[in-house]
Amino acid sequence: MNSPHAPRPGLPVSRRQFLGHLSLGAALLATGRRALGEEMPAKKLGVALVGLGSYATGQLGPALKKTKYCRLAGVVTGSPEKGRKWARNFGFPETSIYGYDTMARLADNPDIDIVYVVTPNSLHAEHCIAAARAGKHVISEKPFTTTVAEAERVLAVFREMKIRHSIGYRLHFDPYHQELIRLVRTNEFGPFMKTKGDFGFTMNGRPWRAIRQFAGGGPLMDVGIYVIQEGCMAAGDVPPVAVTAKEGPKTRPDIFQDVEEDISWTMEFPNGSTCDGHCSYQHGGNWFRADAAKGWYELTTAYTYNGLAGSTSQGPLHFPGGFSQQAAQMDDFARAILDHRPSPVPGEMGLRDMKIIAAIYEAAATGKRVTVAA
Predict the structure, then answer these.
(1) Vertex 68 angle, CA 349 and 92, to 5°
(2) pLDDT, mean of each 10-residue run, the chain (374 residues)
(3) Which whole-number Å values give the CA distances from 187 to 162, 181, 281, 293, 357, in the listed order?
C-alpha cells in the first residue's frame, strides 16, 4: 500500500517529497542475516559523507543509525557549523569534519574507511578521486559522473589506488526489485522480451538539477537512470546494444533552459528484447513492467524509498515494510570490504549507465538509432 503522503500523479511536488518514502529492502536483509545467526563485526566501518544536502540529511543520515556494519564517522562540508551539528548528532569528533579543500587529510584518519560522495553530479568525479587518493573506499551517488570520459578517469584512479567502489543504486537491495533479479536468474517466466517504465515528477523552481553545469542533464540523469537500471536488470544486467530516443516539448523553457524537461527512449538488447523508457520533470510517473512468454512482473509504485507495490502473473508481491534501502545498500558495501569481494553495483556499472545515457542524448539530438559504446 502506498504511503498516505505519496504524491498524486500530475500534482506539483518537490523532488524530496516525491522520493521521500523510506523503503523495505535494507532491514529485510539485515533481519534475515540476524535470523541466520550471521556474526556482526567487532568494529563497524567508518563512513564519511561528502555533501550534507537533502539526501544526506533525509535519507543517508537516518539510515546510518540503522546500519549494522558501518557508522557515520565524519563529514565533508562547506559549512563548519553544519558539520559540528552532525558531529554532535552522531557522536564523532569535530576533528573528523573536513572541507572540500581539505579532503586529502582524510588519509590521516583511520576511523574513516568509506567515503560516500553526495554532492551535485558535476562534482562527483572530483570528490571521488580525492577520496580514492586519500586511500578510502568510495560510494558515488548516482549518476556516477556527468560524462563517460569522467567515469573512465575516476575508475582508472580507483584501480590505481586498489580501493573498493560502488554506486548508490539502492533499488538493487530492495526486495521488490530483488524479485525481478530472482525471476531473471531462475528464468522462471522465460526471458523478459518487452519491458517498459516511467519515472517523473513536476519540478518547481530551478534547482541545480535543472542546470546543466551542475546536473549534466535533466530528468534522464536524475530519475530516468532508475528506468535504465530496471531495464538492464530485466535483461540480466547486460547493456543494450543500441538506443533510439526523442525529447519531449518544453512547457517551461524558463526553467529548463539547457536541459531536457521530458524524454523517451527505447533500448535494444543483444537477445532482441527491448525496453521503452520515459522520464520527466513535468508529470508524475512511477512504474515498471516486464513481460515474458510464461509470465509477467509489474511494479505500480517502483522507484521511491518506500511504499513500493506490485505483482507478478503469480499474484501480488508482499514484503515487510518499515526498513531502509539505503541502510541495506551501505551495509552491503561494508560487507564487500570486509569479505574482500566486489560490490554488486560497482563503478563499472556506473560507467555502463553513463554510456547508455550518452547514447540516449545523442539519439534524441540526431533522431537516429545510436549504438551504445562497448
Answers:
(1) 100
(2) 34 41 37 46 92 97 98 98 98 98 98 98 98 98 98 98 98 97 98 98 95 98 98 97 98 97 98 98 97 98 96 96 92 98 98 98 98 96
(3) 35, 10, 35, 11, 28
Report the pLDDT value the prediction gives residue 41, as an integer from 0 to 100. Answer: 72
Please state the domain extents for the chain: 20-170, 172-320+347-371
What angle, rounded to 10 degrees, do the helices at 175-186 and 225-234 form? 30
For residue 132 the three cell numbers come to 580514492
DSSP H helices in the chain:
15-19, 25-35, 54-55, 61-63, 80-90, 124-133, 148-161, 175-186, 212-215, 219, 225-234, 325-339, 347-366
Q: Quote the radius of gyration of the chain (alpha carbons, Å).
A: 20
pLDDT at 63: 98
CA distance 79 to 60: 18
- Here the cell at position 306 is 518506500
CATH 3.30.360.10 for domain 172-320+347-371 = yes
Distance CA 329, CA 299 (A): 20
Q: What is the reported pLDDT for 38?
A: 54
d(CA 68, CA 330): 9
Tell how far CA 248 is from the center of its chain: 24
How far apart CA 187 and CA 236 sit, in angstroms, is 10
Cβ-based neighbour number of residue 54 at 10 Å: 14
* Grid-cell match 575508475, residue found: 155
Task: Please tell me the distance from the alpha carbon of residue 231 to that of residue 31, in angstroms, as a whole number.
Answer: 28
Do 38 and 341 touch, CB atoms closer than 8 A?
A: no
- Other beta carbons within 10 angstroms of residue 249's beta carbon come to 8
- Helix (H), strand (E) counts: the chain: 13, 15
Q: Which of 3.30.420.40, 3.90.25.10, 3.40.50.720, 3.30.2000.30 is the CATH number of 20-170? A: 3.40.50.720
Q: What's the confidence (pLDDT) of residue 9?
A: 34
